[in-house]
Design brief:
This protein has about 425 residues and is an alpha/beta fold. The protein is about 35% helix and about 15% strand. The longest helix is centred in the C-terminal third of the chain and has 24 residues. It is globular. The structure holds pyridoxal-5'-phosphate (PLP).
C-alpha cells in the first residue's frame, strides 16, 4: 500500500498550516531520533509537541505499559479504582509540594484545563456565591476545547468561534515596564467580587511564542488574587515535569496555585493523560448530601491504567539522579548558547529557562504565528534532519532529557548556520 497517498486521501492532520503535499512517514523512533520509511533519522528537537521526556521508545515506560496491559487495560473510573491511579495521584501530589490533596483524571491538556475551569466555577456556585468571571493573560494558550479557547488569547485561531467563547478579563503579560499598570489593573479586577479564578501559564506562555515573565511578578499577582479570595489556576501542561528546571514552574513562586493542570510530559510522551489537582477546600465544596453539588464531569478513559502505568514509570525515571543532572546540563548548555547567539545576532530576542530556549527572530514583519519565516525555517531544518517547528518567527528548542551535549551542539550549530543565511 502507498501509505503516504492513503494518508493524503483519508487523514486530517492537526494544525495543517504548512500545506504539506505529504506527511513524513515515521516507522519507528528511538531516543531523540525519528526514523522514516526511507531511512532518514530526524532529531526530534521539540519532544514531539513537548510531550516526550526520556526519549522515544524508552524501554522502562514501554515495559510498564506492556505489563499493565496484561493485568488491567481499563476499567470504568466511577465506582471503581485501581492501584496505578492511586499511586500516581499520591506521587504527583507529593511532588507538587503545595498542599494539594486531590487529583482529577482526564485525557489531555485541554481537558485538564476544562476540568480546572469547571472546578473553579462550580466551587463558587456550590457555595452560593456569584463569582462567574475568569481573569487570563493576553496571548495565553490553554488548549482547543471551548473553555480552554475562551481563556486563551483571542487570535485568528479562535476567531471563527469568537461569539461562542465566554467573556474573560485579560491582563497583559507582565514585564518590567508595564508591571505597575498590570498590578493596578489586576487589583481592581480582583476586588470586584465577581471573579472566580485567575488562570495562567506559569513563567512561560508556550504556544504564543515561548513568552517568559518573572516569578516575582507572578508571585505578586497570586498573592493579590488570594487576598481577594480569587482561585489561582496554574496551567502547567507545558511547564510541568522539569521543563523549566523545577518539577513544576509554580515552585519558583512562594505563593501557590489552588488548582494545577498537568498533561503532556506526564506519561513521558507515551499515552494521553490529563490531571487536575486541587487544594482540599476546593474538593470540600463538592462534598454534600445535595446530589446537585457533585462534579458532573468525566471521560470514558478517565484514569486509564495504561496511561497511569506509563506516568508512574516516567516519574521513576525523573527521580534518577542522572536525569536531573542531564536537565541541568541542558539548562547550562542553553545558557551558553544563548550568550553566543545574542552576541552574534544582537537584534534577535533570546529567552531561556531550564530546558526551554527560544529565539525570536526579528524581521520586517511583526512577530506572529503566521510570520512567513515559519515555513522556511521548518523545511530548512528538516532538510538537515532536525525537527524544529517554529511558532512563526519564534524558533525554540525543547529537547528530551536523554539528549547528550554533543547532540545539543549539533542542533545549535545548525541553528547558527540557518540564522547566518543557510
Ligand atoms: C499550556 C498549555 N495548556 C494546554 C494545552 C493543550 O494541551 P493538549 O494539546 O494536550 O490539549 C497546551 C498545548 O500545547 C499548552 O501548552
Amino acid at each position: 500500500m502507498n501509505y503516504k497517498s492513503k494518508d493524503f486521501e483519508h487523514v486530517w492532520h492537526p494544525y495543517d498550516t504548512l500545506k504539506l503535499p505529504e506527511q513524513i512517514l515515521i516507522k519507528s523512533a528511538e531516543g531523540i531520533f525519528l526514523k522514516t520509511d526511507d531511512g532518514r533519522e530526524i532529531i526530534d528537537a521539540i519532544s514531539s509537541w513537548w510531550v516526550n521526556l526520556h526519549g522515544h521508545g524508552n524501554p522502562t515506560i514501554a515495559d510498564a505499559i506492556a505489563a499493565q496491559a496484561r493485568s488491567l487495560e481499563h476499567v470504568i473510573f466511577a465506582g471503581f479504582t485501581h492501584e496505578p491511579a492511586i499511586n500516581l495521584a499520591d506521587q504527583i501530589l507529593e511532588e507538587l509540594k503545595c498542599g494539594h490533596t486531590k487529583a482529577f483524571f482526564s485525557d489531555n491538556g485541554s481537558t485538564a484545563v476544562e476540568v480546572a475551569l469547571k472546578m473553579a466555577l462550580q466551587f463558587w456556585f456550590n457555595k452560593g456565591k456569584n463569582r462567574t468571571k475568569i481573569i487570563a493573560i493576553e496571548g495565553a494558550y490553554h488548549g482547543d476545547t471551548f473553555g480552554a479557547m475562551s481563556v486563551g488569547g483571542r487570535t485568528k485561531f479562535n476567531q471563527p468561534f469568537e461569539q461562542f467563547l465566554f467573556d474573560v478579563a485579560y491582563i497583559p503579560l507582565p514585564d518590567q515596564e508595564n508591571f505597575d499598570e498590570v498590578v493596578s489593573n489586576f487589583t481592581n479586577l480582583v476586588a470586584s467580587n465577581d471573579i472566580a479564578a485567575f488562570i495562567y501559564e506559569p513563567l512561560v506562555q508556550g504556544a504564543s511564542g515561548m513568552r517568559m515573565y518573572a516569578p516575582q511578578h507572578l508571585d505578586i499577582l497570586i498573592s493579590l488574587a488570594h487576598k481577594n479570595d480569587v482561585l489561582c489556576i496554574a496551567d502547567e501542561v507545558m511547564t510541568g515535569f522539569y521543563r523549566t528546571g523545577k518539577f513544576v514552574a509554580s515552585q519558583y513562586c512562594d505563593n501557590k496555585p489552588d488548582i494545577i493542570c498537568l498533561s503532556k510530559g506526564i506519561t513521558g510522551g507515551f499515552m494521553p493523560l490529563g490531571l487536575t489537582t486541587c487544594l482540599p477546600n476546593i474538593y470540600d465544596a463538592f462534598v454534600s448530601d445535595d446530589p446537585y453539588k457533585v462534579f458532573f464531569h468525566g471521560h470514558s478513559y478517565t484514569g486509564n491504567p495504561l496511561a497511569c502505568a506509563a506516568a508512574l514509570a516516567s516519574l521513576s525515571l525523573l527521580r534518577l539522579p542522572d536525569c536531573l543532572v542531564n536537565i541541568q546540563m541542558i539548562a547550562n548548555e542553553h545558557d551558553k548558547f544563548a550568550k553566543v547567539i545574542q552576541a552574534k545576532f544582537p537584534n534577535h530576542k533570546i529567552r531561556h529557562i531550564g530546558t526551554i530556549l527560544a529565539i525570536e527572530i526579528i524581521t520586517n514583519t511583526p512577530t506572529s504565528y503566521f510570520n512567513e519565516l515559519k515555513e522556511k525555517l521548518y523545511f530548512n531544518f528538516l532538510k538537515k534532519n532536525i525537527l524544529l517547528r517554529p511558532l512563526g518567527n519564534v524558533l525554540y528548542i525543547l529537547p528530551m532529557y536523554c539528549i547528550t551535549e554533543q547532540q545539543l551542539r549539533i542542533i545549535y550549530k545548525v541553528i547558527i548556520e540557518e540564522l547566518d543565511g543557510g
